[in-house]
């Protein structure tokens, strides 16, 4: 449509000019899109942004130094120390009297052969930074008489233009340490709520610069200057114009660049870093190059997933460390490394820029790189940026570095930079060069005196370089040659068509945003997700986890090992005292890494208990866990009674249970994990040995370690004993559910190993959690209406119902499938199956092994979700489960249809609720001989009014001769669930007053009621199994009633319904409609009167409802009444015809 402006687009959509018709969006959609995504579509901003005049009205204010301040306080003491952010070193220089702070970064680093990145802190750079800081104070009339630091600064004595004093060994400078804590507290605030998990080092550097700037800009308590800031004292800076603080750190912006008379985009996609001056200029990180650019005009947009992925890709390219679990740079030295200042300086060819940051307008660059020195190797102060220039030019404020323009516009011809452009680069773009040299492990002596980090840069180019200029070996300039860039064929113009959602990007030579997903296939971030087996259960070995998550995985394992050590799970044992048999029976330590739903990395150390099966009795090798059926019943009770519900997790649950004294078990660590264990507890070092050239460590197991066969039962017995001591009574039907009466109200707890859900009165719930927390400290607790338990999201509504969902799980499942297939599931279906679902074409080609594995994996994933949040897909999936052994191409089409439908409905939640807790309805139906082996299919639902407590769709386990036989088999297969719920509810204190079984086969109803009296000799083959149902019905509390076939909701789970039947029954099963909407024979508990009467609502043709009293009838009476109604209707029709 030619990319009209937003105002013009709204006029077009409003019909003015009658230029288009049948548009899928409205003018209001444009307004909403602007509000959601922060402005116009990116293409409009990139292509149409025009230059605005720079702010020339703000006079740069300076602050004069009070003469009496220097007269009364002529001397200063500098306190120095190192601090670390993302394991990179920073030197802080703090004036003890004025409290002015200066920061020094160290960007010189090397990479080992194993990929380890190491930072250096050369002595000459530290000395130069200190001398420059001293000179800065001298220029304002203050004499630095003393520099005070830790013992590691001994080597700079005699090299600094002031006396250097150091603390005693193992002592620290308290003034510097207090200032470092102050800086770190400020730094954490910047990163809160940012969506990034890994960032390039430039973002951390610029963030620290900004922290220093604002600390110096404000008054400091304890400073000798009571009325002016430290920055005003040392640099004479005036107040900062707050009206120019328009964007926050980490925001996503489109930064205007000087337009040219060609097709170059007028904006650059970038991340905001910090103000560059007090006149409205800002520094940004270009998302194209990852380098710093300068601009004064931009548009802030919402941070999209593509932007986050691009930041992660830039960070991964540097091998930058991951942020911590809270999204904040790791503020500390890497564990296990004691660093000292490098004794020898780095060779000049390897040097890098260590920059001294006073604040943004006073920068000391110490660089010995020939490319950046511009003829001067000495560091000097620049009154940089534009604050000190009263005659601010628009060009100097608006331009972005020429190299940035060239890197984004590969189609432009190479041209000589203008002199003013070169000058701008030296001011506005701070040089950053990070040489990378592979080195061997033999360089361990250098590494030990360095700061280790994961940062890396594969380039050694400067922003100030002109990459278009080429020189020969003699340094002479070569003649201009034809560009050697790869000529690419014209691209599909559809690739550049975007939308107002801000997620479509123009293509550039260096980075192609429109094909972002493809470009990310080889990044660490994309590998992380493609390797995950499941969004929630993405567990992997520690070796694989360390490759993917790197330092985060190592830190998670150290945390896990420390927990084992703190809880005395493992004990030291003399290696020489072990027999060969004991060592052979030792359990191998298995180390696992898992990424949780919130992005945190969790380590787990467990034992390989498979070898114990020969020695542990079966009764000691199993333990109860709460069933899904019990969980759904509990949340239904909690919602109906509007209880306060909480969820909590007991960390390291098994580790609280002691191993019996008569049990002797060993855990065997191997390889690199031995070193981690020894680092956590050096007492194990004496037990380390080598077996077959591999380092091993045997530890005695003192607690119920994860992986041991008997651990589950040991923990269960311990936790159940704790609850019973608190007065709880265990449910006999589900032994992982317990109840207690508190102040006349029931308090219920259910647990699945270490995950617990509890419901009751608020005070009772709180008291229970506090007691359990005292017994097992460190609980992770959730309270409120929205809770997550065992990967299931529960939303407790105010109307006595609960919504149940696994939306993140399903979305990740679809995403993983699309990535594995390399395609997008974009077809839309109204049902997950076609009419011919049960038809099997045995001539269809079999799937290859790769596709068959995908078929099996995702069928099982859907099976997990269907029993928890998606009962509407169970029928289709259970049929496909019968095809996992030899799936063919036809099965694959059915599978893809189901997955496409799931994607379309991926946000759907099921609702469960009860009209009351004393009445239950079960509807069971069966389809005869529908499978290819002529077996039937059983469908069933159990409900208390809204949604279903449980559902069943399964292939029958035997062949039958008739539909009646098939129905009987289905009833016998489904009835145990009915009885389970009845017994479970009774144990919970809710004895059912009504337990109705609805059937649509009249012959089966006779058999169920009359038993052998209605049986013929032809049915003896099913007698033994199916008369169990009759026995349960006669001796139990089950009432069998007739249900018309077109109202049998269980039919949803027996045959591939389409159209209205599918839609209506699905709404009933998902709980979006009450059961009575589909099944008019359902009687609401409030409508029951007397012992044998009920109210039935009948809709007349005039849509007027009338309530009638009706006596319950036997089956024979019901049939007789139905016949009488038919005769009556026929007479009415005959009478009407006669009158005509």
TrEMBL record:
It holds the Pfam family RVT_2. Residues 354-368 have a biased composition (Low complexity). Residues 593-818 form the Reverse transcriptase Ty1/copia-type domain. Residues 326-504 are annotated as: Disordered. Residues 493-504 have a biased composition (Polar residues). Residues 342-353, 386-414, 442-468 have a biased composition (Acidic residues). InterPro entries: RVT_2 (IPR013103). Residues 415-441 have a biased composition (Basic and acidic residues). This is Reverse transcriptase Ty1/copia-type domain-containing protein. It comes from Chaetoceros tenuissimus.
């Amino acid at each position: 449509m030619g990319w009209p402006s937003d105002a013009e687009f709204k006029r077009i959509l409003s019909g003015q000019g009658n230029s288009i018709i049948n548009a899928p969006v409205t003018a209001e959609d444009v307004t909403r899109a602007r509000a959601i995504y922060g402005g116009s579509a990116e293409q409009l901003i990139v292509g149409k942004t025009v230059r605005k005049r720079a702010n020339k009205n703000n006079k740069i204010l300076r602050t004069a130094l009070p003469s009496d301040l220097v007269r009364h306080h002529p001397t200063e003491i500098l306190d120095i120390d190192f601090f670390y952010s993302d394991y990179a070193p920073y030197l802080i220089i703090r004036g003890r009297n004025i409290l002015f702070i200066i920061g020094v970064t160290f960007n010189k680093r090397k990479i080992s052969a194993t990929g380890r990145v190491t930072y250096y802190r050369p002595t000459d750079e530290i000395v130069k930074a200190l001398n420059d800081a001293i000179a800065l104070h001298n220029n304002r009339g203050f004499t630095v008489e003393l520099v005070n630091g830790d013992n590691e600064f001994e080597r700079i004595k005699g090299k600094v233009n002031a006396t250097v004093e150091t603390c005693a060994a193992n002592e620290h400078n308290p003034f510097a340490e207090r200032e470092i804590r102050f800086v770190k507290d400020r730094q954490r605030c910047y990163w809160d709520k940012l969506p990034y998990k890994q960032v390039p080092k430039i973002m951390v550097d610029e963030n620290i610069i900004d922290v220093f700037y604002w600390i110096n800009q404000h008054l400091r308590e304890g400073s000798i200057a009571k009325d002016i800031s430290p920055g005003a004292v040392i640099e004479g800076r005036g107040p900062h114009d707050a009206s120019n603080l328009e964007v926050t750190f980490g925001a996503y912006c489109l930064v205007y660049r000087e337009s040219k008379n060609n097709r170059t985009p007028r904006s650059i996609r970038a991340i905001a870093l910090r103000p560059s001056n007090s006149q409205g200029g800002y520094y940004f990180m270009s998302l194209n190059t990852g380098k710093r650019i300068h601009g004064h005009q931009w548009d802030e947009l919402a941070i999209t997933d593509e932007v986050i992925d691009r930041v992660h890709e830039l960070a991964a390219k540097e091998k930058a460390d991951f942020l911590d679990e809270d999204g904040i740079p790791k503020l500390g030295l890497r564990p296990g490394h004691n660093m000292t200042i490098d004794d020898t300086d780095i060779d000049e060819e390897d040097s890098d820029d260590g920059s001294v940051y006073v604040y943004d307008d006073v920068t000391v660059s110490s660089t010995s790189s020939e490319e950046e020195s511009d003829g001067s190797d000495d560091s000097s102060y620049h009154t940089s940026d534009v604050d000190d220039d009263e005659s601010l030019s628009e060009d100097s404020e608006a331009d972005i570095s020429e190299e940035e323009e060239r890197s984004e516009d590969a189609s432009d011809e190479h041209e000589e930079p203008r002199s003013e452009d070169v000058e701008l680069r030296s001011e506005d773009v701070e040089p950053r060069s990070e040489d990378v040299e592979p080195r061997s492990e033999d360089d361990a002596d250098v590494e030990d005196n360095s700061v280790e980090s994961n940062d890396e840069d594969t380039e050694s180019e400067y922003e100030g370089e002109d990459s278009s200029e080429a020189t020969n070996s003699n340094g002479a300039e070569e003649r201009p040659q034809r560009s050697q860039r790869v000529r690419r064929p014209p691209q599909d113009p559809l690739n550049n068509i975007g939308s107002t959602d801000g997620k479509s990007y123009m293509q550039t030579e260096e980075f192609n945003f429109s094909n972002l997903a493809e470009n990310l296939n080889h990044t660490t971030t994309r590998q992380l997700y493609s390797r995950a087996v499941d969004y929630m259960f993405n567990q992997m070995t520690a070796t694989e986890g360390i490759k993917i998550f790197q330092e985060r995985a190592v830190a998670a394992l150290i945390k896990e090992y420390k927990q084992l050590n703190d809880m005395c799970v493992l004990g030291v044992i003399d290696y020489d005292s072990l027999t060969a048999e004991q060592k052979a029976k030792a359990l191998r330590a298995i180390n696992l890494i898992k990424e949780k739903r919130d992005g945190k990395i969790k380590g787990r150390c467990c034992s390989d208990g498979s070898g114990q099966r020969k020695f542990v009795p079966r009764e000691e090798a199993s333990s109860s866990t709460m069933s899904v059926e019990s969980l759904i019943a509990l949340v239904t009770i909690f919602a109906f009674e509007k209880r306060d519900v909480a969820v909590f997790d007991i960390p390291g649950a098994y580790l609280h249970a002691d191993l019996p004294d008569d049990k002797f078990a060993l855990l065997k660590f191997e390889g690199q994990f031995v070193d981690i264990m020894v680092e956590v507890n050096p007492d194990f070092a004496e037990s380390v040995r080598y077996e077959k050239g591999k380092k091993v460590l045997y530890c005695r197991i003192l607690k119920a370690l994860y992986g041991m066969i008997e651990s589950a039962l040991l923990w269960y017995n311990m936790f159940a004993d704790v609850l019973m001591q608190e007065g709880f009574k265990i449910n006999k039907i589900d032994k992982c559910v317990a109840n207690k009466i508190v102040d006349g109200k029931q308090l219920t707890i259910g647990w699945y190993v270490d995950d617990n859900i509890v419901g009751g009165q608020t005070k009772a719930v709180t008291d229970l959690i506090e007691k359990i927390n005292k017994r097992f400290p460190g609980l992770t607790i959730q309270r409120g209406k929205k809770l997550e338990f065992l990967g299931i999201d529960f939303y407790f509504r105010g109307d006595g119902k609960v919504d149940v969902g696994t939306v993140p799980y399903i979305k990740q499942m679809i995403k993983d499938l699309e990535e594995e297939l390399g395609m997008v599931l974009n077809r839309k279906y109204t049902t997950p199956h076609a009419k011919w679902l049960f038809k099997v074409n045995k001539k269809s080609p079999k799937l290859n092994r790769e596709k068959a594995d995908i078929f099996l994996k995702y069928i099982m994933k859907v099976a997990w979700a269907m029993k928890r949040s998606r009962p509407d897909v169970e029928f289709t999936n259970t049929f496909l489960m019968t095809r996992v052994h030899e799936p063919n191409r036809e099965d694959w089409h059915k599978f893809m249809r189901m997955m496409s439908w799931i994607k379309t409905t991926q946000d759907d939640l099921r609702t469960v609720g009860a009209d009351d807790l004393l009445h239950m309805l079960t509807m069971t139906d069966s389809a005869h001989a529908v499978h290819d082996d002529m077996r039937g299919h059983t469908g069933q639902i159990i409900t208390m009014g809204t949604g279903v407590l449980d559902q069943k769709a399964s292939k029958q386990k035997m062949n039958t001769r008739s539909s009646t036989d098939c129905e009987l088999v289905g009833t016998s297969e489904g009835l145990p669930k009915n009885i389970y719920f009845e017994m479970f509810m009774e144990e919970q204190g809710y004895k059912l007053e009504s337990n109705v079984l609805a059937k649509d086969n009249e012959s089966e109803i006779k058999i169920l009621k009359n038993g052998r009296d209605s049986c013929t000799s032809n049915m003896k083959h099913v007698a033994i199994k199916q008369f169990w149902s009759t026995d349960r019905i006669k001796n139990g509390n089950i009432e069998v009633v007739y249900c018309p076939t077109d109202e049998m909701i269980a039919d949803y789970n027996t045959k591939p319904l389409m159209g209205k039947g599918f839609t209506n029954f699905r709404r009933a099963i998902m709980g979006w409609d009450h059961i009575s909407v589909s099944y008019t024979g359902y009687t609401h508990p409030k409508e029951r009167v007397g012992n044998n009467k009920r109210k039935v609502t009948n809709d007349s043709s005039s849509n007027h409802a009338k309530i009638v009293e009706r006596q319950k009838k036997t089956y024979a009476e019901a049939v007789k009444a139905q016949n009488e109604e038919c005769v009556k209707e026929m007479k009415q029709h005959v009478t009407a015809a006669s009158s005509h």
